[in-house]
């Protein structure tokens, strides 16, 4: 593949190398960096649009500030690929999101230029404030202690955590720089009052002196800058277009600026670096996907792409015969909503990711995207339920974690029938540990009155949607993974399951394999391999982690010498609940051999999902090996049961 011509970028081994360039050359560096970013992501896939929107800002920040002493913190950080290219990682940029390659997000263990790891939104201002306070208290950290700069998008700014941080920063009054990167385009179109507020700020004519100052010459700066007689805060207040909301929180406000115009960015950043005393917010307008026509034309502005053709932007995606779990959930929910006008759906900035796009089209008055605000989203669904509706709260497992306090206090304690549709359960591949759905079974199944299900295949998912729709006695959750199903035949509409009842898949002897979730296919593969050795395990699909199918589990324990549970979740989940039941019922007193196969007690870095499950020792070969080990059957190296 031909690589772009990048003569100036080739001279940049670290951000310090940008200091040698004139402003005109920095503009050229930005053009070369954009070409390099597009070229790299075309080979690896990943988040493209966000990075292209901050090319000029990335160059300007690294040219003016002194990272890693100055801490540049990218909110969410899916826009950090250009930052990685400028900070000594260009030679590895084509390993993005691959096994043993660069993370798709900032990561402290990867580089001193990544002072704070991210991947969930709205954390950057809190982190930057922490660095600023640590600096002023004499804290020592890698690279030294300098300025703290948070770069946050307008979508991420809608989360309560961002305002909590700004309120605290305004109160403390520390020197802190927040750059609001406003592209009017989070993953989904941004929602809510903040979006409208930011839109209104553009309506006013930008203050002419700011424009003049932004164009360059120091002599054009207003007198307070030239004389240094007044604090920057007072002067900047006089220059703003709007910014009343931010000023009420204690921030000086500059903006909005054109975030793609180096002639505006460089002088303003230099001035702020030179003069700022307290917290300051610089509001820039950018275009997500800027400079790459296919991304700019896409609905999501090239948010997350597979590998793609550089010329056309056409993505290279493997075809699958089986539908994705997310699309099956979407279809099943539509079928239920068609029969019941009380069914409604809530998501947090991920309508397409959670499959609610179609629901929103068909039932717009019953679908709510609350923005990046999972805590609010969960309490909102709790009150919808209390108000007589049947809400489905559709969130990724890893994002639902942010709403856990609300799940406990506002849903579980009040026994409200909120239906939690938990997408991205288990290991998800290229996004790595930050996006893995590892903990939801453990943190939900310990809540009194909570029903927790996991679908073994896409037909089971349809039945679980129907089960949740019909369940009014309290909260209920069902989890399903990213990616394609196993290709089973799908019913027209799901049938409600008996709460707390599993199903037998096959009857055998000696060992029982009790699966919870989509490892069932691997369990069945392992059973086939064991059959060749004359071992026929019993296989059961638990369906429920809470309430457990006590009768089925105790029967399996009583009629087999060994029982093994298999799940795609962390320690403390389904297997722990089974062990508790067996212990209390005295099953171990009779000599039962019990093993629990769970995700290991580590965070697993990005790779393909298959490879991650091998790392987790949850593949068919691992299940087969576990059975042989428990039954005391010797394995011959190189034969089945090993991964040789």
Question: Notable features of this structure?
Answer:
single chain, 644 residues, alpha/beta, seven-stranded mixed sheet, five-stranded parallel sheet, 25 helices, 17 strands, 38% helix, globular, disordered C terminus
Q: What does it look like?
A:
The strands form three sheets. A seven-stranded mixed beta sheet has the order 7-6-8-9-11-10-15, sandwiched between helices. It has a five-stranded parallel beta sheet with strand order 1-2-3-5-4, with helices on both faces. A five-stranded mixed beta sheet has the order 12-14-13-16-17, sandwiched between helices. It is 38% helix and 14% strand. β13, α21 (520-531) and β14 (538-541) form a beta-alpha-beta unit.
Q: Based on Cα principal axes, name the global outline.
A: globular
Percent of sequence in beta strands: 5-15%
Average pLDDT works out at: 88
- Main sheet characteristics: 7 strands, mixed
In the sheet with the most strands, the strands line up as: 7-6-8-9-11-10-15
| Number of DSSP-assigned strands | 17
Helix coverage percent of residues?
25-40%
Please count the helical segments: 25
The secondary structure category is alpha/beta
- Unreliable stretches: 201-241, 637-644
Distance between the termini: 34 Å
Q: Nearest-angstrom radius of gyration?
A: 27 Å
